[in-house]
Amino acid sequence: MYKAETFQFPGRWVGGTSMILGPFLLLAGSLLRIQFHFFFPDQLKAFDEYPTLITTSYNLFLAGNILLWPAISVLAQLIGQTKPGWATWGGTFVMLGLFARTFHYGINHLAFQLVEVQNLQLATKAVADSYGAFHIVATLSAAILFGWIILAIGAYLYGVLNLLRSIALGTMSVLMLGVLKGSSLASVLATAGLCTALIPLGVQILRSGPAPGQRSIWSWSALMAGLIALMYFLGQAG
Fold it and tell me: 20 to 30 A from 22, CA-CA: which of 74, 105, 136, 172?
């Protein structure tokens, strides 16, 4: 399993923590907007009526999606110890799909701002008129669907995950991808499956080496809080 005595990027702490937080945030974001129909006119209408709820939902989901890259990197490393082909292709496809989702969420943010600075009708028309327009990221959309299945098979063959948790990981292939996609039962099942697959593995990885001292925990926590605050300030200024 995970070799704590050798350096591996992104490392035990980043990888294990992202395996816990990433899936949880995806599930939380999905549950917050499940009451609304998943197609874009309904999502824009939901934002117009419940801006705080929808903004929170989309930001939680986006944060979870971004946090998944270290988790997928570590999972691919584990699988690659004996199944390098499955790890390489599965990890690569999923990573490309994570980039695609992040791109789509940038479009989502712009669409929601159109509702605020113009109105719901104009925003809906703008999205409808431009929906389906070609962009290079569209070529990556299908990658993540196959990537989750490849990773799930590799994880089972190597023994990283048992059969049940491998199947749970593979359910992520049914999670819808695209602009202003809301939640459905399939979304909840997929993200809950990801939690089932990765959260216990994340805990196992965090426990696979020595625990940091209390002083180290406080130091790193303060450093990370400062870095997050600085990045937020710079992002707002830009």
Answer: 136
Cα distances (Å, whole numbers) of residue 104 to 52, 107, 155, 183:
20, 5, 28, 15
Residue 158 domain boundaries? 12-207
- If asked whether residues 128 and 234 sit together in one domain, one would say no
Q: Convert the pLDDT of each residue in 79-94 to its tens digit.
A: 999 989 999 999 999 9
DSSP 8-class letter at 211? P
* Percentage with pLDDT > 90 across the chain: 73
What interhelical angle do 12-32 and 51-80 show, nearest 10? 140
Count of structural domains, the chain: 2
CA 179, CA 107: separation in Å to the nearest integer? 7
Whether residue 111 sits in one domain with residue 98: yes
Q: What is the pLDDT of residues 192-222, one digit of tens each?
A: 999 999 999 999 999 987 776 666 666 666 7
Same domain, 95 and 20: yes
Statement to judge: residues 203 and 219 lie in one domain: no
In a domain, 94, yes or no: yes
Shared domain for 59 and 133, answered yes or no, is: yes
In a domain, 106, yes or no: yes
Cα–Cα dist 171/51, whole Å: 30
Paired tokens of 60: 């939680």
Give me 179's structure tokens. Answer: 């602009």
Separation CA 173–CA 148 (nearest Å): 6
- CA distances 220 to 19, 111, 203, 210, 225, Å, are 19, 37, 19, 16, 8
What count of residues does the chain have?
A: 238
